[in-house]
Amino acid sequence: MTVITNLSRRTVLKGAAAASGLVLGFHVGFRKLPFAEAAEIPPFQPNAFLSIDGTGLVTIVASRSEMGTGIKTDLPLVLADELEADWNRVKVVQGQGDPKYGDQNTDGSRSTWQFFGPMRTAGATARQMLEAAAAQTWNVPVGECQAQNGFVVHPPSGRKLGYGDLAKVAATMPVPPSNQVRLKDRKDWRYIGKPHAIVDLKDIVRGRATYGIDLTLPGMKYASVERCPVYGGKVKSFDAKDALSVAGVERVVEIPATLIPSGFKPLGGVAVIANNTWSAQQGRQRLKIEWDYGPNAGHDSAPYRAELEATAKEPGKVVRNHGDVDNALASAARRVSADYFVPHLAHAQMEVPNAVAHWIANTCETWSPTQNPTQVRQTVAQVLGISETNVTVNVTLLGGGFGRKSKPDYVAEAALLSRMVGAPIKVTWTREDDIQHDYYHAICAQHLEAGLAADGQATAWLHRTVFPAIESTFQPNVTYGSAGELQQGVTDMPYAIENVRCENGPAANHVRIGWYRSVYNVPHAFAVCSFADELAHAAGKDPVEYLRQLLGEPRKLDFAAMKVDYPNYGASLDAYPVDTGRLRGVLDLVVQNSDWGRPLPPRQGRGVAVHRSFLTYVAVIVEVAVGSDGEVTVPRVDVALDCGLIVNPDRVRAQFEGAVIMGISNALYSNITIKQGRIEQSNFSDYQVARTDITPQTHVHFVESSAPPGGVGEPGVPPVAPAICNAIFAATGKRVRALPVDPEALKADRAQNKE
């Protein structure tokens, strides 16, 4: 357990400059980093991410949050490579939430592709300043000075100086303009593209790492909050007498409810304050609360599903349209249709939401496992009614996130309670809180139709999708998806089909909807990749060969010509086009490295799926075995990916191995249902996720690429579920069109639904 004794000590340096949304100027401001001891101001601090002290120690700030992706290691590696630093003399520290670092939201698989260039520039800038300092010291041309592994050397004379020796002089050098910064040639990279262990590895495996749930402060109180079981409900009255009788309980206070849509603000409820977590939770169980359950008290997920499925069969808002779909369907030699369903899902990350906050004299300091310190700062300021400059945000390690910890409602709860109580407060959610008050992955119903020519060629494609939009958690009366949601497997459908129409139907919302790992790619890839397999079998062709036929000749999708609003995950389409040739490349690679085509015993099969998301191309081949009782096991998974340039192959491999496990959970186990507005699941006993005993033999294959880096954290998840379900069809002849897979429907004595 970590005890912080210096609540808000800060060291502030003067001066700042911004470039490309990031502070890369000379002598930028720094706040005291969390968990570090007070230190002298380093003599050389050329930008917000880097400082070098007189001993030559290089300190690099990790501005993104670490939750297992390795980003706390990988971005500093990029900077260190361009700096020509000795990695053994590099110290990586976690940055606070601060605008000077630019975008700090560790979400959307954006960290590497957004920061690869700026980190290279930051390192190269400092390298050039150190070389200039050496040239001045030796009175030689700067072109004769070369930075090498923490030193600057002068080959003609054999002299060299360490970075620490040059730090003070380097601090007086002008910062070169970004267009005059010399980046290293790829052949000279020493760290980029090579496997590296994460910087926190030893502390993590030895139990010394500090996660949010480990943190305490002197005089800290502990809170457990009872929230209304129905989204939009509020407290009518409560009796705290029995709760206050529990040893250790000190106070009971009400957190006012937030009107829905509640956004990132706390839901409200009744908080029990105690001198330890256990007492707070025991006192909470003795509260007597009368609730006003609000407008969602009658919500039931079963009829809601039926409503969404009915909507999906009706015309919706057209979001992509070219050719004449209706005529092509009417004139097709064969018409194929299918309906798909994916339920609400919960994030269920291992570390439950938790936060520490300390309110002092109109300021608030927080410590939390957050993916988005920028949003913490904004939300805490909003709920407290203070300036963002009065909020200090410290970031701990995260015990998983998957998007849940980019929503700071739990940090805002701690901030409000600290002000009410007048002491540091730690809020710890239970697993039941986590499952029953999540920002859920959206439920989704879809209807697809295709027309086939006599030779099996697809001539028409109709795709309708219906889901509650994420924006409905933040704005009222939102019933349609955004372009950013529809780009995830709908408007970017890559197949070479002449007649295409994609539609989005309206859906009301009754729970908090939020982004979950891979977001709407999960349901859309499930439907699109499953339907492609259905078309292959309808055409009487091998699924791999049919996918190659669907993808057609390599081409880049022209969204302007299609008049499609395509945000491309916030990246430039010039730098990151949707390239079907790269999809074909990962398909070919995974086939080459798997046993596709090798015969299997009865009730075993292989399935394939390909999908692009978050700027990365992924193909998956899954091998399944279906028992006579309908239980599905997954002995082997092969994944091929093209994510462009890879910074740390060890971390990329780990992310895709983890994505396979999460994809298995989505396909076989996880399901959130609602009755009378209440979430019916409460813990891992009834909200199932994949366990270690089902872990398949997983092979991850990389496409060697010089393309710009794409996303890694999320793209591996979407194609796993459809590949599993396609494999189930190959093994049993039974189609799975709704998740999670129902073993009862796969029992050996059940009739097949083979086309």
**Radius of gyration from CA coordinates:** 28 Å
Estimate the strand proportion. Answer: 15-25%
The outline comes out as: globular
- In quaternary terms, these chains amount to single chain
Major sheet summary line: 7 strands, mixed
Mean pLDDT: 94
Question: How widely separated are the two ends?
Answer: 59 Å
What is the count of DSSP helices, taking H or I runs of 4+ residues?
A: 18
- What's the β-strand tally? 31
Query: Which structural class do the helices and strands define?
Result: alpha+beta
Helix content: 25-40%
Biggest sheet: strand arrangement: 14-15-12-22-19-20-21
Low-confidence stretches: 1-38
Protein model, in words:
The longest helix has 28 residues. The chain has 18 helices and 31 strands. It is globular, with a radius of gyration of 28 Å. The relative contact order is 0.11. A 7-stranded mixed beta sheet has the order 14-15-12-22-19-20-21, sandwiched between helices. Strands 17-25-24-23-18 form a 5-stranded mixed beta sheet, with helices on both faces. It has a 4-stranded mixed beta sheet with strand order 4-5-6-7. It is 26% helix and 23% strand. The protein has 755 residues and is α+β, with helices and mostly antiparallel strands.
